[in-house]
Write a structure and sequence with these properties.
The complex is a heterodimer of chains A (303) and B (346).
Chain A: H1 2-5, H2 16-27, E1 30-42, E2 47-59, E3 63-67, H3 74-82, E4 89-94, E5 97-98, E6 106-109, H4 121-132, H5 143-153, H6 169-182, E7 187-191, H7 199-215, E8 219-223, H8 227-233, E9 236-241, E10 246-252, H9 267-280
Helix pairs in contact in A: 4-5, 4-6, 5-6, 8-9
Chain B: H1 15-38, E1 46-51, E2 63-65, H2 66-78, E3 85-89, H3 97-109, H4 120-151, H5 153-166, H6 175-182, H7 186-210, H8 214-222, H9 227-261, H10 269-279, H11 283-311, H12 321-345
Antiparallel strand pairs in B: 1-2, 1-3
Helix pairs in contact in B: 3-11, 4-5, 4-7, 4-9, 4-10, 5-7, 6-7, 7-9, 9-11, 10-11
Classes of the chains: A alpha/beta (303), B mainly alpha (346).
């Protein structure tokens, strides 16, 4: 309510610094190109169109969030990008090469904990390195040394020999991020990675992720349903709408870098949030009202 | 209040009480057995003759049914002969606990009646060998097949319908056939155990394999694993502890086939011993032998359970001494880390 009353700038307004930053991003090469992507499922009675004509581009080291109401197909989208599902239309180009099926060039962090429970933290992070048999071409560095470096980066060197069941949820996701990054993917796909964490841990993880992204050469596509999270982390936000899932708008976030939690109440932040609210929850009236009959005494009002 | 605690669904009891109740689970049947054995008022349908008196067809230590005993004594009294003396006793097939306990020792040191018959420990060893061979032969084929069925649909469709059908055929039904094919010695016995175990094993291992978390396979794929690597690096290690648990259950089932198996052809092993002792009416030995099967079974299982928790440290909730030490160390590290993070924000 309050956001509607406070006079906010347009979410399209950008400070000179921010505008300059977007101009510099635009000069970077395109890493991922999604062209008219579509996905239909065979339902019981009819064919269900989950995604239609999804097109966007991601430039090197950009942080892109995909947001939308539940059922908009954002998870399907990222699974197609990861190669875990197949699109029924359109194409995905990574560095101008079409991708099919999963591969080590697209790392993924899942919402559920997917660490291999039989491997220690160290061995989990080494998993991809051992498979490829290479240590990304760095001479004289063993897979173990390299893995230890990544574990150190997420601050878990004391847990290198622990098994996943000995870690908290936040620690598990940090290991999952280290495991994905150790493979040096071109793009890191994150499917609501902090969705299962409590609010405090999530907040901490967001700040970790920003630090990691700042220091590692990686492009990130981040799925979330949390508006604040999307604004706080992203350069751009791809807003999807449901039935069928289509791109509604791609928003350039006008909040300055480096990001801090204090910016949650800044005017630019709230301006974007207001716009997202309008897009994702357009009209709050009739649809959300429950048909409840009154079951309290006449004079017993809560407001 | 205290009593209500026991009736909270899935509520674990404190360790002391738990151990107490676990011991009690053995004490209850033992107490019932003792009550029936040592308390004449409970059952004791026989009389054990201590002095046959003038009744010619009674002998000392004979067990006579109570009705017959009193009838004979009454007739003896009429004919002014000396009546027999006796004490109430249980039938021969229900020896008292202390008699069975004694025969645990006696049975091992008593030489067999015929020189070419095996001692008890030889019979037991024979049984264990039959079980182990049967279980090994079954496992060598069923475990890989089960894992393949649980992993690749083609193996599942090629195998499981027939296995589903076959597992309903009772293994002992193949007794005569296996004797005809494999002779009268250990061949048919091992075969019965293989038939009894194999088909359940394939299905059980297949089901276990299918229960692997598909998210782990997806995660591995996004890390660059594919084909055979996916199978050897994710499927196999992921299901291993559950397969191990299945094997423990199946080994227990294999024991249940032992008794039927050992009467195929030339009777051998513990079954031969039990039947032989029953023939001689030495029932305390029969009980001792049956209890011995139980002891061997539970000892093996307790050992395998312990071995499993050592092999699959990552699965067990209990921690090894080493990892407990590590937790103490790292929790202090984590604390300093939190301090650092709040410092960063400030």
């Amino acid at each position: 309510m309050t956001t509607h009353e406070v006079a906010l700038p347009s979410y399209l307004e950008q400070s000179p610094e921010v505008r300059d930053r977007f101009r510099r991003i635009a000069e970077r090469p395109v890493v991922l190109k999604v062209n008219r992507l579509g996905k239909t499922f065979d339902g019981v009675k009819e064919r269900i169109q989950a995604l239609r004509d999804i097109s966007f581009q991601v430039r090197r080291r950009e942080f892109i969030s995909v947001i939308g109401p539940s059922g908009c197909g954002k998870s399907t989208l990222i699974r197609i990008l990861a190669g875990l599902e197949e699109q029924t239309a359109g194409e995905i180009l990574l560095d101008d090469r079409e991708v099919t099926g999963p591969g080590r060039d697209r790392g993924m962090v899942f919402q559920g904990y997917t660490l291999f429970p039989w491997l220690t933290v160290l061995k989990n992070v080494m998993f991809g390195l051992e498979l490829s048999g290479a240590t990304n071409g760095i001479v004289g560095v063993s897979a173990e040394q390299e893995a230890r470096g990544w574990i150190e980066m997420v601050g878990l060197e004391a847990f290198a020999d622990a098994y996943p069941h000995e870690l908290s949820g936040g620690m598990k996701q940090r290991v999952a991020i280290a495991r994905a990054l150790a493979n040096r993917p071109r793009i890191l796909l994150m499917d609501e990675p902090f969705g299962a964490l409590d609010a405090q841990t999530r907040c901490k993880m967001q700040s970790y992720l920003l630090q990691i992204w700042k220091n590692v050469d990686v492009t990130i596509i981040f799925i979330t349903h949390d508006l604040d999270e999307a604004i706080y982390l992203s350069d751009r936000i791809v807003v999807l709408k449901a039935n069928p899932g289509e791109v509604q708008e791609v928003i350039e976030v006008p909040v300055e870098h480096p990001r801090t939690p204090e910016q949650f109440l800044s005017r630019e932040f709230l301006a974007v949030k207001k716009r997202l609210e309008e897009l994702i929850h357009p009209s709050k009236e009739a649809a959300d009202m429950l048909p409840i009959i009154r079951m309290t005494q006449v004079d017993d009002d809560v407001y | 209040m205290a009593r209500a605690r026991y009736f909270i669904i899935w509520k674990e009891l404190d360790p002391q009480r738990r151990r107490g109740f676990q011991i009690f689970s053995f004490i209850i049947p033992l107490a019932i057995w003792s009550l029936v054995s040592y308390c004449p008022a409970v059952w004791h349908p026989m009389m054990k003759v201590s002095d046959p008196g003038d009744i010619t067809h009674f002998t000392a230590d004979a067990l006579i049914e109570k009705g017959a005993f009193y009838r004979e004594n009454a007739r003896a009294a009429e004919e002014r002969r000396r009546p027999a003396q006796g004490v109430p006793a249980n039938p021969v097939y229900l020896p008292a606990p202390h008699e069975v306990a004694a025969s645990f020792y006696k049975a091992f040191v008593t030489p067999p009646r015929l020189p070419d018959e095996p001692w008890l420990h030889q019979s037991l060893w024979h049984s264990i060998k039959v079980i182990v061979w049967g279980f090994l032969i079954s496992s060598v084929i069923a475990v890989p097949l089960g894992i393949l069925c649980g992993t690749y649909k083609i193996f599942s469709y090629l195998t499981e319908p027939f296995v589903e059908f076959y597992r309903y055929l009772p293994a002992p039904a193949f007794g005569a056939l296996s004797v005809a094919v494999l002779g009268i010695y250990d061949g048919p016995k091992v075969a019965i155990i293989v038939i009894g175990t194999f088909f359940q094993q394939v299905l059980m291992i297949s089901t276990t394999t299918q229960r692997l978390d598909p998210a782990l396979l997806e995660a591995a794929q996004t890390l660059g694993a594919r084909g055979l690597k996916l199978f050897t690096r994710v499927v196999i290690p992921g299901i291993l502890p559950d397969v191990y648990r299945d094997m423990r259950i199946l080994l227990g089932w294999a024991w249940t086939y032992l008794i039927v198996a050992e009467v195929m052809g030339k009777s051998t092993g513990i079954t031969w011993f039990i039947n032989q002792q029953a023939k001689y009416r030495i029932y305390d030995n029969v009980y001792a032998a049956i209890i011995m099967i139980g002891i061997i079974g539970i000892t093996t299982d307790v050992f395998l359970a312990w071995l499993g928790s050592e092999l699959f440290v990552w699965k067990s909730r209990k921690k090894s001494a080493l990892s407990r030490l590590r937790t103490v160390y790292t929790s202090s590290a984590a604390k300093s880390e939190i301090v650092q993070v709040t410092h960063d924000h400030a």
